Amino acid sequence: MDIKAVRDAFPILHQEVNGHPLVYLDSSATSQKPVQVIEKLDEYYRGYNSNVHRGVHTLGTRATDEYEGAREKVRRFIHAASTQEIIFTRGTTTAINTVAVSYGRASLSQGDEIVITPMEHHSNIIPWQQLAKATGATLKYMPLQSDGTILLEEAEKTITENTKIVAIAHVSNVLGTINPVKEIAAIAHRNGAVMLVDGAQGAPHLKVDVQELDCDFYAFSGHKMCGPTGIGVLYGKRSLLNEMEPVEFGGEMIDFVNLYDSTWKELPWKFEGGTPIIAGAVGLGAAIDFLNEVGLHEIAEHEHKLVEYAQQQMKTVEGLTIYGPDKRAGLVTFNLADVHPHDLATVLDAEGIAVRAGHHCAQPLMKWLEVSATARASFYLYNTEEDIDRLVQGLQTTKEYFGDVF
Amino acid sequence: MSFNNLDTLYRQVIMDHYKNPRNRGTVEGDHLTVDMNNPTCGDRIQLQLQVNEGVVEDAKFDGEGCSISMSSASMMTQAIKGQKIEDAVKMSHMFSELMLGNEVDDDSIDLGDIEALQGVAKFPARIKCATLAWKAMEKGVDDEQED
């Protein structure tokens, strides 16, 4: 991977923040966008902005081709069998909510169980809490090991014949744990449950093959993988999606409308009510092209090297606690002695280094870790070992700055 | 390396309140309790006020958060103790002005240590930390007056 060429593609990286060259270490929150994506959005709005699936005019046809072309790119990206299984949503959250509401309310009743873990993002907790309340089903948590990993034996114990839905993050946005979702999907299926994978932190970093994972649903967001905000994907097995009712009614999802009854379009449009996020989908298509061009394998290898280096270097900082397993995805969550993570993040920001501080939309996990908040440095293809050196230097500076206080 | 900019935020007096918080704990006797949190960052505060005939006789807080939110709570409880409710609310409004970076020129009220927090105005991301305790106080007063 030519790191210089990669970095050159991201104009935002080449600026100073508070008098220092920017070090962006918050890609788990949202990734930066390469010129290829920015220019694609520009091209759409300047060149062929038009609604899809309606007009017979030239611009409308072009927009439809680009929009459906992006769907095919997504299909290949996650190795789905058919574009009918690729539903464009606003993001991971909408995708998970769609499954909870559409599949969940129709399929669950009292006595049924939904299984998740304490490491889930709020977006993969609350829809299931709401579903449990609405149907009388029970929400169960699969226990975590002390290093924040899942033991398959525990999955075997927690998932029972009463389980109807298992919903687990592919990668934890706090711990960096890469979960054995393929093995858990197999356990879910043996018990007659469906498996949803929250791929928000998976799709941008790992090779995803939904057929190999044999998950029933896979949800992810465009903006965490170099695409625009406001676009995401719900993958679902065709047989399940065919059985499911739409959640939003109106616009693109309509087939025939009579006075008192209507019918829906076929998949995937059945789930895409209203005017879809056309620019977002087109931009996501460009992001996928970009990632493929750099090479998914190369990106994964680069991130792996970075996170190994980061762990190694950060361990030299006295008073630093790192949360999560040694073997992890490209992020490090930590606390520095008694310095509150917000204060830490402010000092780092003064040094031009952007990290996340807070509960990371994972309050149950914070409770599990017995902390109120943490700081997180997350990496992507455009980060370098120099970025990590700057972070480590920033941590030393923070200690010096607050040294006589704590 | 210069920390001039940071030093406007982390004044000595702020760090002193963080390290040695005043009025941390619980109020004895009759009091009202307000729980407030900042959902975006997880800071939380429990504020207890003892109000008698329109005067804040005691104020204590508990909670967890960054140096700015906790020192602000410490300073606020110190400032409003012994004040009339309306003066406490007036202080809160003055504090909001400070956070917007505006000059406050009301000689009738002495903000004391609190003025040390005016540097927060230059750190927009941290303003919510500084105002948490004050919002809790205003909510407590509102609830009290509704009863």
TrEMBL record, chain A:
An annotated Gene Ontology molecular function: cysteine desulfurase activity
Q: Which CDD domains match?
A: SufS_like (cd06453)
In terms of PROSITE patterns, this protein maps to: AA_TRANSFER_CLASS_5
Q: What is its EC number?
A: 2.8.1.7
Q: Which InterPro entries match?
A: Aminotrans_V_dom, Aminotrans_V_PyrdxlP_BS, Cys_dSase_SufS, Cysteine_dSase, PyrdxlP-dep_Trfase, PyrdxlP-dep_Trfase_major, PyrdxlP-dep_Trfase_small
Q: Which residues form the Aminotransferase class V domain?
A: 23-391
Q: What is the name of the protein in this document?
A: Cysteine desulfurase
Q: Show the taxonomic lineage.
A: Bacteria, Bacillati, Bacillota, Bacilli, Bacillales
TrEMBL record, chain B:
- Protein name stated in the entry: SUF system NifU family Fe-S cluster assembly protein
**InterPro entries noted in UniProt:** NIF_FeS_clus_asmbl_NifU_N
Which residue numbers delimit the NIF system FeS cluster assembly NifU N-terminal domain? 10-129
From the UniProt record, list the coiled-coil ranges: none
Q: Which organism is it from?
A: Halobacillus naozhouensis
Q: Which Gene3D superfamilies match?
A: 3.90.1010.10
* Alphabetical list of Pfam families matching this protein: NifU_N (PF01592)
